[in-house]
Structure to design on (331 residues):
């Protein structure tokens, strides 16, 4: 069964073709980052308009590259939420119309379920059950995963998501949007241990996170320096280390609490090399295993949506022709 996956929840137009037996056939991605860069953040209306412009050509390109025709598609998966309402509606309306015209099913996928299942696209994929740390620009979640659709929320950020904190700290350091990857590049030049940032909410029990304090700490620390290039790199490194260690402390706790020995880390921030290293070191000490998607599938993409939708369609899940978009949607 060939499944077309469509992702338009934020600032990436992602399309993929996934086959239930053969695996991922092809994926295409168009990033709006350069357009939003000019405004220092995402402009929702511009995001929707750009998805409208790019989505159909991207579907055609993906089919052409795979040497497939529209009539070969047997199901369509699209991101139904959470995300920007206008952006979601472009994907949902396109998916539903195409599915109706081809007389095939379309299924709405939860964006974070897409991230959560992204490591399943890799050769070395995790078996159920596992603990998932989902770290993106909009969410930071710890989830106990027993199978497809069997998700128990263990903890979440009470304020900013980890990616959001990265982007805001990066802005303070004078970096462009989205700042996460740029901050991590800058941190490479940083001297370790010059600044000691807090590890928020690690001194009390529980699996929730809070990252907004790290943002304030970044601002206060920067203001106490001359803000030379070295000062900025040192602050970037201290921020990144604090975030990585906070995530590692909570993941270790989640593994202990659930008794599980498998950790999946996904979402945009999981592309961060330092965070991958710190989490890997922790997991080795715990005699557990760790799984990440390849870096290009850590950030938003159509492949993870096609995979998640394929599993749902194989389980005979159906939905009405009604256009379904849920900007807020708990996992
Ligand atoms: O999952 P994603 O592509 O979109 C959402 O669902 O939000 O995540 C985007 C977030 C942004 O905040 C971006 O700065 C962050 O992931 N990010 C990173 C890195 N790559 C992407 N943060 C830190 N280090 C990175 N290498
Ligand atoms: Zn995402």
């Amino acid at each position: 069964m060939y499944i077309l996956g469509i992702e338009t929840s934020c600032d990436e137009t992602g399309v993929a073709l996934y086959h239930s037996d053969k695996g991922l056939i092809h994926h295409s991605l168009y990033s709006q980052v350069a357009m939003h860069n000019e405004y220092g953040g995402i402009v929702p209306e511009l995001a929707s308009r750009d998805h409208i412009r790019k989505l159909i050509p991207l579907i055609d390109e993906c089919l052409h590259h795979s040497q497939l025709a529209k009539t070969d598609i047997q199901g369509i998966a699209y991101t139904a939420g959470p995300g920007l309402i206008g952006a979601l509606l472009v994907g949902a309306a396109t998916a539903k119309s195409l599915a109706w015209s081809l007389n095939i099913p379309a299924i709405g996928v939860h964006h974070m379920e897409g991230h959560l299942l992204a490591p399943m696209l890799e050769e070395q994929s995790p078996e159920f059950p596992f603990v998932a740390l989902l770290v993106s620009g909009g969410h930071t979640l710890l989830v106990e995963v027993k199978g497809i659709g069997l998700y128990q929320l263990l903890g979440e950020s009470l304020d900013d998501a980890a990616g959001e904190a990265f982007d805001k700290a990066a802005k303070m350091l004078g970096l462009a949007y989205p700042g996460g990857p740029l901050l991590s590049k800058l941190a490479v030049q940083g001297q370790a241990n010059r600044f000691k940032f807090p590890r928020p909410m690690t001194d009390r029990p529980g699996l929730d996170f809070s990252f907004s304090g790290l943002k304030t700490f970044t601002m206060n620390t920067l203001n106490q320096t001359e803000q030379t290039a070295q000062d900025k790199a040192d602050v970037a490194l201290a921020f990144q280390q604090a975030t990585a260690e906070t995530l590692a402390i909570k993941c270790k706790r989640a593994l202990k609490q659930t008794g599980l020995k498998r950790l999946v880390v996904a979402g945009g921030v999981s592309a961060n090399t330092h965070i991958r290293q710190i989490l890997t070191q922790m997991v080795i000490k715990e005699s557990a295993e760790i799984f990440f998607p390849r870096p290009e599938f850590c950030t938003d993409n159509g492949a993870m949506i096609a995979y998640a939708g394929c599993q749902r369609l194989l389980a005979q899940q159906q939905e009405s022709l009604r256009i379904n978009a849920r900007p807020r949607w708990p996992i």
Summary: The beta strands are 2-7, 12-19, 23-31, 73-81, 106-110, 130-135, 140-147, 150-156, 262-266, 289-291. Residues 229-258 form the longest helix (30 residues).
